[in-house]
Amino acid sequence: MSENFNLQNQVLSVAQFNQLIDGIVSPLQVVVEGELVQINTRSSRWFFATLKDSQASVSVFSPLNRIANWQILQEGMRVRVDGWPRLYQKTGRFSLFARSIAPAGKGALKKALEKLKKELEILGYFDPDRKRSLPTFIRRIGLITAPDSRAYSDFISILNHQLSGIKIDFYPVLVQGDGAVNSIKSALNFFNYQASQYDLVVLTRGGGSLEDLLAFNNRTVIEAVYGSRVPVLAAIGHEEDDCLVDLVADIRASTPTQAAQIINYHHQETLSIIDSLTKTMVDNYQELISNYQETVNTLVNGLSFYYRQQFRETNYLLNRFNRAIDYFFNKIETQRETLLVLEKLLLSFDYQNILKRGFTITLDSHDKIIKSPGQVSLADQIVTRFYQGKIISQVKSKNES
Fold first, then answer.
1. Is there a single domain that holds both residue 98 and residue 140?
2. Are residues 92 and 143 in the same domain?
3. Structural domain range at position 31
4. How many CB atoms lie within 10 A of CB 141?
5. Contact 234, 251 (CB under 8 A)
6. What's the CATH number where 207 sits?
7. What is the number of structural domains in the chain?
8. Per-residue DSSP letters for 130-187?
């Protein structure tokens, strides 16, 4: 109250009375159960509705972001509204400012979830064709669950038991209660903001009642999982009924332990495939190398045989060539000796040598050798050639006998 009133001695105005009553009731936190009617989500910012029973009704209002599961609320549903009374001072009309609105009873909640499930199914949220498989190589995981929870310890211990070397980045969240939806959404946004650094996001908790799992059936969380850039493995450890986050997630596990086992099995399977491929590649390369080696050996042996044959043929031809050369040089030597003999013979016929021994040659005026007197006439001019020099004379007489 902004003013102190002495109720015994003070006459209150209507406004003061309304202010007084509002000041008394507004701090009270109450839970009111009734049937929800006349739902109106004005401008997608405010939630307005009427809560009634067989005898009375009260207006309910709240910002939409305060009502985590407002999408599943429907007219005719029995709900429990947790909030504070409010008195509109100008009219004196009471209303209820809601902190949370939850279906009252398991039947109502199931009905609301079934309605949301059908809507999401029509929109293709559960379509198997849009779901992604586990990445081939899982190197880094984003883990979303409650801190110091059994879900956290079970998942970590099972996953680390295999010593797979997978890095786990833990984002602690609330998994139930008023702040759970925004907490889980913030965690998913965090890992999606760094999507390139993560291969998988694991969203898990250790089960609970349908009421406990409201955050995992909330449309805000479902849409965050649906729109995740990183594949999501959901492991909400409930024993019955479908959890909508499980249905929309890329991969589903029944418990945190099974989630870790799925990852370990996939990791081991990937390693086995790699080992098998490596062995196959090594065997193929060894076979290829062996085949190439055999081919090379065949070529080397063939070349060796060819070059040995060529060497023998070349050696044979070289020997023949050498013999031909020897024969050729022998022939040349023989011809040289013959030429020397012929040269000596020719030299012996050289008239200069004859002249040198004192003989002379007589030639007529036409430089023809005169062999008999009959070849000249009287008064013919003749030339007598000596080894050195010559004599020109005239025929005075001749004797042909």
1. no
2. no
3. 14-104
4. 23
5. yes
6. 3.40.50.280
7. 3
8. GPPPPPSS--EEEEEE-TT-HHHHHHHHHHHHTT---EEEEEE---SSTTHHHHHHHH
Angle (deg, nearest 10), helices 150-161 and 256-348: 30
Query: Do both 146 and 264 map to the same domain?
Result: yes
Distance CA 226, CA 180 (A): 18
Rounded to whole angstroms, the Cα distance separating 34 from 78 reads 6
Q: What is the DSSP string of 300-342?
A: HHHHHHHHHHHHHHHHHHHHHHHHHHHHHHHHHHHHHHHHHHH
Single residue among 242, 269, 296 that ends a domain in this structure: 269
CB 99 within 8 A of CB 178: yes
Residues 152 and 97 in one domain: no
CA distance 267 to 139: 10
**pLDDT value for 1:** 43
100 and 123 inside one domain: no
Residue type, 29: Q
0.85 exceeded by pTM: no
176-194 pLDDT, tens digit per residue, is: 877 888 899 999 999 999 9
Helix 180-193 vs helix 219-226: angle between axes, to the nearest 10 degrees? 10
Cα angle 70, 75, 77 (rounded to 5 degrees) comes to 80
Which tens digits make up the pLDDT trace of 337-359? Answer: 888 888 777 777 777 777 777 78
Residues 142 and 248 in one domain: yes
pLDDT for residue 37? 87
Buried b (16+ CB within 10 A) or exposed e, 225-247: bbebebbbbbbbbbeebebbbbb
Q: In terms of domains, do 80 and 222 share one?
A: no
Tens of pLDDT, residue by residue over 69-116, are 777 777 777 888 888 888 887 777 888 898 888 777 777 777 778 888
d(CA 81, CA 104): 9
Please state, in angstroms and rounded to a whole number, the distance separating the CA atoms of residues 74 and 38.
Answer: 9
